[in-house]
Design brief:
The protein is an alpha/beta fold. It has helices spanning 15-21, 40-46, 51-63, 69-80, 112-129, 143-152, 171-178, 194-206, 208-214, 224-240, 258-269, 285-292, 316-323, 328-341, 348-355, 365-379, 385-397, 417-424, 432-435, 451-461, and strands at residues 3-5, 30-32, 91-95, 98-102, 134-139, 158-165, 185-190, 216-217, 248-253, 273-280, 294-295, 344-345, 358-362, 405-409, 445-447. It has a domain at 91-107 and 225-424: 3-Layer(aba) Sandwich (Rossmann fold), CATH 3.40.50. The longest helix is centred in the N-terminal third of the chain and has 18 residues, at 112-129. Bound molecules: pyridoxal-5'-phosphate. Pyridoxal-5'-phosphate is lined by residues 110-112, 143, 221, 253-259, 307-308, 386, 410-411.
Amino acid sequence: MHYVSTRGGAGVRDFAGVVLTGLAEDGGLFVPQSWPQLSERDLIELRGHGYGDVAMRVMQPFVGDALDQPTLARLIEEAYATFEHPAVTPLRQIDSETWLLELFHGPTLAFKDCALQLLGRLMSHFLERDKQRLTIIGATSGDTGSAAIEACRDRDGLEIFILHPKGRISDVQRRQMTTVTSGNVHNIAIEGTFDDCQALVKDLFGDAEFRNEAKLGAVNSINWARVLAQAVYYVVAALALGAPARQIAFSVPTGNFGDVYAGYCASRMGLPISQLIVATNNNDILARFFGSGAYQPDRVVATMSPSMDIQIASNFERLLFEMVDRSGEAVTGAMQSLKQSGSFSVDPEHMDRVGQLFSAKRIGEAETLDTIRDVATRAGIVIDPHTAVGIAAGRLTRKSKATPLVCLATAHPAKFPDAIDKALGSPPPSPPKIASLFEREERYDVVANDPAAVKNYVREYL
Ligand SMILES: *Cc1c(COP(=O)(O)O)cnc(C)c1O
């Protein structure tokens, strides 16, 4: 399988190339040259198989010759063995024809583990094969950092540095990162805000000399392997609920558009998805886009679902590419317009290419709390605020009550105790994984909000 850039100006790569590169050199995102198909017969044959078998069948055509089958099977097996539930991503019914797809049974209790546990292993494998090393640098406002650290810890060829704003993330979030004492993990508390951390990372990547010297890489959400790994659980859930004989609808709490775009990929492969509901919090750029065809970032506002407090949905460019009939020129034009005038528009004809499949809905803070309360009362299940946004949007937007609706549950409620306390009057009990964080030693260094200081810190370890 070959991959092309959404902006049409980069050379083609194989799977290993896109895993290690992340962003294409023309600023675009890599997408597969064609969509491998899962026929009705393929899907029927997959019924009753475990997560690993389905993952293998979904991913193999996209991996192509970049990995032999036993190696891919081993990496998949190892990645999902870190999950605590035997089904990896179990379904739980919350009312008639509505299910939760629990994606939070991995090491950091949020759905990013589903993709990152595999990505870390893939990267490490390709680096070892090529006798290369990569220095992963990232900034986190909380959740992504711990998932990236868990994905990279103790992996050959990888050194990881995660910047967090000192004193500005929760104790649980900090401890999930700083209690990892593997030799290749480096936590840096920056004397500044999350925006400062992001600016520092951008500065480091912008310094070509340092980038080459340190062999900088990223595990951010635009990496194709993350999207691909996420397409798997759509297939797993749909098969369990009767596909291919039945259509299935999904509601997806959305920030960077990575997770819901993975659903789109599954649909393009032939999975019978009737509806993909794009659920946003008050940061509603995507809900506004699907309503009007205009993509216009606004200011980011803080909500109780912070992992979706995003106004630049980086993976959206991949869907745009499909909407404009895979024209790299049209995508480049839209991105220039975004940069110059702060927005771009897609005309109705091109909106129709995906309009049948996608619906979108913004959910406010009060509705999020109401939904947490309602699901606790009626189903006896405590859900996290991101999941609540997805359920609320799903209930308001589903086209048919007879079609099963799967709402993606993206985080364990114990990661957001304040929101649960606000909704239900008490915080949820902590699972052992979180409780034990408070008994372990923390390790991190405080570094000034200054690019030179961060570079020096990184150099010390290389
Ligand atoms: C990252 C994240 C999301 C949003 O996922 P995207 O792929 O960015 O759309 C939703 N919920 C939780 C808990 C997350 O960590």
